[in-house]
């Protein structure tokens, strides 16, 4: 198992990857499929990159719906692997219902309320807003069962937690990749992300300062940060922008090709 331990070398999130490593060891030792806990987007990518060097192990990600950012990894012995659809994971829906007409909340507010009610991030998947009615989330079955019928508080709004079958959730529609081109005076983050995500530049700058925007999964706190080709910009709830190319025009402006997914 020395090769397994070697996958942690150089990782800045080794402590968070250790449970994934333990799950991989259990899978290989017992010859049984193993699901990890829910992992955030950057940790999923790092785990896949590091475990990819192990030829005897195969893995697939699932988050309860297509396009989920927070996912669990299904780990299997390569020579005994079965299709994902034959390996049901522990996914359940959760409704967080309340009246947010006069006190709109962000996804982070709902996540904080779930944690305050006893949820751990390891058993909580994606969460999305439902206008002024609250939010829905995907989590582990035990979490949904534990919180079902409980009352909570999101900001100043009383809410009710209710377990829901996955098929009853109004899940976000899968994002289809879309190519965009924008001409900007600079490659500043607020300018490029504003054009790519279709928000005003002032709103984008506000979101950046709030920590809602990331570059290659790392928080971006400065709207003036210059972007380069190959970087990815993530905005919670709105997907990812990949900077495909940056070209200088004859008028000393920047023609930027983007891929939004």
Percent strand: 25-35%
Query: What's the Cα radius of gyration?
Result: 20 Å
Number of domains: 3
Shape: globular
Characterize the quaternary organization of these chains. Answer: single chain
Strands, total number: 14
Instruction: List the strand order in the largest sheet.
Output: 9-14-13-12-10-11
Q: Based on the structure given, which CATH architecture of the largest domain is correct? A: 2-Layer Sandwich
| Highest CATH level, the class of the largest domain | Alpha Beta
> What is the typical, i.e. mean, pLDDT?
93
Treating each run of at least 4 consecutive H or I residues as one helix, how many helices?
7
Indicate the low-confidence ranges by residue numbers: none
Would you tell me which CATH topology of the largest domain applies?
Ribosomal Protein S8, Chain: A, domain 1
Class of secondary structure makeup? alpha+beta
> What is the helix fraction of residues, given as a range?
25-40%
Report, as a whole number of angstroms, the end-to-end distance: 37 Å
Order of helices and strands: HHEHEEEHEEHEEEHHEEEEE
Largest sheet: 6 strands, antiparallel
Summarize the structure.
The chain has seven helices and 14 strands. The protein has helices at residues 2-6, 14-30, 41-51, 107-116, 141-147, 189-197, 201-209, and strands spanning 34-35, 57-62, 72-77, 92-97, 124-129, 134-139, 151-154, 157-164, 178-184, 213-215, 218-219, 232-235, 239-248, 254-260.
